[in-house]
Design goal:
Rossmann fold, about 35% helix, about 15% strand, 7-stranded mixed β-sheet, alpha/beta, globular
Length: about 375
């Protein structure tokens, strides 16, 4: 199989979908690898690194897309890339289709197959390709929030950990999954007062054990969220429903009741965001204000630390990429149900129910389409 690695074109997206060691492993398994020139540069990976691994460097994205059987990326295709879609091409990347009806339609119309990192689901219930970037985003959310709490950046002028005689910042984390746990770890390490809100009481018990009672855990409901936000300096949105649009559980009136200059970081923005006041921003223009509350809603946060993020991501994605390359889509999905769960678009149809439900569209189960010729 011919594997293509284009350079990412999303704003300030400096990660890359394959590292040189992965290219070498694919070559050892009999596959060819095309890499767009300078695709890895943002992650401190040179053309020479890829060439030493046996990849071929090509000058343009068009050559990668047009020649490859399978394109591996990091972020969802941008409108400038839609024209490269074609029937029979496999795209392996984060898709986050639920809030992106135009991308969904372009993929359906073209006949391309989209395998989404974020919905690959293993039998133990884990989302293995979402975990590494959730870890990065969760940890980043606190350091970004701490930065924007500084007065020159628009915040209240609060040091997250306080100092002797002055209270630390109050950090509220909505969602106790991978993002929330990593956010709590960094916030505690910086000396903040941390509250985690989640609807799963068993998960709250686990978090109480993990942090040895050092965080406040609260059962999620409208009253609890509203009251917690009213006293918070930094709020991190970490809510996830795999493949579906994030529920907007923080209402506009809750934001309006927050303290002037407080900060919200919506890590769920990839799936539409969990604050009613959220809309996606970029690393070029990362913030905006609603009711004097600073919002940071960058949809590719881990791109700010691309070297760490690229290696963390590709450590997780490569085994699945190799399986797709060695076996082809139909056989790989037939033998690996977790990988099959990642197929969101196939042969002109949506194949992931949560995406279809989020957009009010019909869908078909993947086995039905794989059996059709």
């Amino acid at each position: 199989m011919l594997i293509g690695v284009p350079k990412e074109v999303k704003d300030h997206e400096t990660r890359v979908g394959l590292v040189p060691s992965g290219a070498a492993a694919l070559r050892e398994n009999g596959h060819e690898v095309l890499v767009e020139s300078h695709a890895g540069e943002g992650s401190s990976l040179s053309n020479e690194d890829y060439e030493k691994a046996g990849a071929k460097i090509v000058p343009s994205a068009a050559e990668v897309w047009n020649k490859a059987d399978l394109v591996v990326k990091v972020k969802e295709p941008q409108p400038s890339e839609y024209g490269y879609f074609r029937k029979g091409l496999i795209l392996f990347t984060y898709l986050h289709l639920a809030p992106l009806p135009d991308l969904t339609q372009a993929m359906v119309d073209s006949g391309i197959t989209g395998v989404a990192y974020e919905t690959i689901l293993e039998p133990n219930g884990t989302l293995p390709l979402l975990v590494p970037m959730s870890e990065v985003a969760g940890r980043m959310a606190v350091q970004v929030g701490a930065q924007y709490l500084e007065r020159p950046n628009g915040g209240r002028g609060i040091l997250l950990g306080g100092v002797p005689g002055v209270a630390p910042a109050n950090v509220a984390i909505i969602g106790g999954g991978i993002v929330g746990t990593n956010s709590a770890r960094i916030a505690l390490g910086m000396g903040a007062h941390v509250t985690i809100i989640d609807r799963n009481l068993n998960r709250l018990r686990e978090l109480d054990d993990i942090f040895n009672g050092m965080v406040v855990t609260l059962a999620s409901n409208t009253w609890t969220i509203s009251e917690t936000l009213r006293h918070s300096d930094l709020v991190i949105g970490a809510v996830l429903i795999p493949g579906a649009s994030a529920p907007r559980i923080v209402r506009r009136d809750m934001i309006a009741n927050m303290k002037r200059g407080s900060v919200v970081v919506d890590v769920a923005i990839d799936q539409g965001g969990c604050f009613e006041t959220s809309h996606a921003t970029t690393h070029t223009n990362p913030i905006y204000f609603v009711d004097n509350v600073l919002h940071y809603c960058v949809s590719n946060m881990p791109a700010a630390v691309p070297h760490t993020s690229t290696f963390g991501l590709t450590n997780a994605t490569f085994p699945y990429l190799l399986e797709l390359a060695n076996k082809g889509l139909d056989r790989a999905c037939a033998e690996h149900k977790g990988l099959a769960a990642g197929v969101n678009i196939h042969r002109g149809h949506i194949t992931y129910q949560a995406v279809a439900d989020s957009q009010g569209r019909p869908w078909k189960e993947l086995p039905e389409l794989c059996g059709a010729r």
